[in-house]
Design goal:
- This protein has a 10-stranded mixed sheet, with helices on both faces.
- Helix 9 (about 235-245) runs parallel beside helix 11 (about 285-295).
- The longest helix has 23 residues, at about 255-275.
- It has one domain (about 25-295): Ribokinase (UDP-N-acetylmuramoyl-L-alanine:D-glutamate ligase, 3-Layer(aba) Sandwich), CATH 3.40.1190.20.
- The chain contains 11 helices and 10 strands.
- The chain starts with 9 loop residues before the first strand and ends with a helix.
- It is an alpha/beta fold.
- The protein is about 40% helix and about 15% strand.
- It has helices at about 40-55, 70-75, 95-105, 120-130, 140-145, 155-160, 170-180, 190-200, 235-245, 255-275, 285-295; strands at about 10, 30-35, 60-65, 80-85, 110, 135-140, 165-170, 205, 210-215, 220.
Length: about 300
C-alpha cells in the first residue's frame, strides 16, 4: 500500500523475511526478553511471550513478578522464566532493576510494558531501564501510560546512552496521554505520529484501523486487519512479534522495516483468523497461531 502523501515523509517499502538456513540453530534467531505482567494482568505476559515465539524468536526469556510464575509456567512452557522482585500490589519492584539489566544484556531485543500496571515504583523502574537497556526496545501498553507526562527526558536519557532503536506501540488513547493532545483520528494520525517520532528519536506504531508505522522520515500505513482484532490482548501479541523481528538485526534491513513487517503479519493473521472463526470469535491466541504462515509467505 502506498502511504498517503505527507510533506517530508517517504513511503516505506515493506521488506520480506529471508528463509532460515537449513543448518541454523536457536541462537541464530534472536533472544527476546519480555518484561511483562502484574498480579492483575498475568495474561499480558503470556500473550507477549506467545507473540515473540510465534514470530520466530529462537529464545524467549519471560520476566514476571515472582508470584505470577505458577500462572505463566504452564501457558508458556517454551519461555525461560525470570521471577523478579515485586511490590506489595504484585507489580515489578524497583529492586528488580539489577536482574532485569543483566537479563537485557544477554538479549538481542527487549519488550517492556504489557500488563505492568501503573504503580509509581514500577514507573521508576521503567525510567531506569530506558537508560540502562542498550538493546532494541519495544515499549507497549502500561510502559506508555507510565511515561505519560514525563516529556522527552526519559527518551533523551536513552538516546544519550545508546543508538539502539526504540519502538512505541500506542493505541489512540495512549498516544493522547503521551502527547497531551486529543486522540488522533482520520488524517491526523499519520502527521501526528511522524511528528512525535521525529521529536523523540523513536519509531511509532500508532495502532488502530490503518495502523501507522513511522520514524518521522518514512512511513507505512497498514491496509489489512479487521474489527474482530479490537479485543484485549491483541496488542500484547503484536508487542512480542515486534521483539522477535527486532531481535535478528541481520535478517531485515532496519528497525522500521521490522516494525512494519510485524504489523503487516499481525494484521494478515487477524484476517485469516476472522475468515476461519468469524470476526466476533477472534481471540489473540488465534492470531498468534497464524503468524508463522504469514511470515513464511513473505519470504
Amino acid at each position: 500500500m502506498s502511504t498517503p502523501l505527507t510533506p517530508g515523509l517517504a513511503a516505506l517499502t515493506l521488506p520480506a523475511l529471508p528463509p532460515r538456513a537449513r543448518d541454523s540453530h536457536k541462537g541464530d534467531h534472536g533472544r527476546v526478553l519480555v518484561v511483562a505482567g502484574s498480579r492483575h494482568y498475568p495474561g499480558a505476559a503470556i500473550l507477549a511471550a506467545l507473540g515473540a515465539g510465534r514470530a520466530g524468536a529462537g529464545l524467549v526469556h519471560l520476566a514476571v513478578p515472582h508470584s505470577l510464575v505458577p500462572a505463566v509456567v504452564a501457558a508458556a512452557p517454551f519461555a525461560i522464566l525470570l521471577p523478579c522482585h515485586e511490590t506489595a500490589e504484585g507489580g515489578f519492584a524497583l529492586s528488580a532493576a539489577d536482574e532485569l539489566r543483566a537479563a537485557a544484556a544477554q538479549a538481542t531485543a527487549v519488550v517492556l510494558g504489557p500488563g505492568l500496571g501503573r504503580e509509581a515504583e514500577t514507573g521508576r523502574l521503567l525510567v531506569r531501564l530506558l537508560r540502562d537497556v542498550h538493546q532494541p526496545l519495544v515499549l507497549d501498553a502500561d510502559a506508555l501510560n507510565l511515561l505519560a507526562g514525563l516529556g522527552d527526558e526519559p527518551f533523551a536519557a536513552r538516546r544519550a546512552a545508546t543508538d539502539a532503536p526504540t519502538v512505541l506501540t500506542p493505541h489512540p488513547g495512549e498516544f493522547a496521554r503521551l502527547t497531551g493532545l486529543a486522540k488522533p483520528t482520520g488524517d491526523e494520525r499519520l502527521p501526528q505520529a511522524a511528528r512525535f517520532a521525529a521529536e523523540h528519536g523513536v519509531i511509532v506504531v500508532l495502532k488502530g484501523a490503518g495502523t501507522v508505522v513511522t520514524d518521522g522520515r518514512r512511513a507505512w500505513v497498514e491496509p489489512a486487519g479487521n474489527p474482530g482484532m479490537a479485543t484485549g490482548g491483541m496488542g500484547d501479541v503484536l508487542a512480542g512479534m515486534l521483539g522477535a523481528l527486532l531481535a535478528v538485526p541481520h535478517a531485515l534491513p532496519d528497525a522500521l522495516g521490522a516494525a512494519a513487517l510485524a504489523v503487516h503479519a499481525h494484521a494478515l493473521a487477524g484476517d485469516a483468523a476472522a475468515r476461519d472463526l468469524g470476526e466476533l470469535g477472534v481471540l489473540p491466541g488465534d492470531v498468534a497461531r497464524r503468524v508463522g504462515k504469514v511470515l513464511e509467505a513473505r519470504g
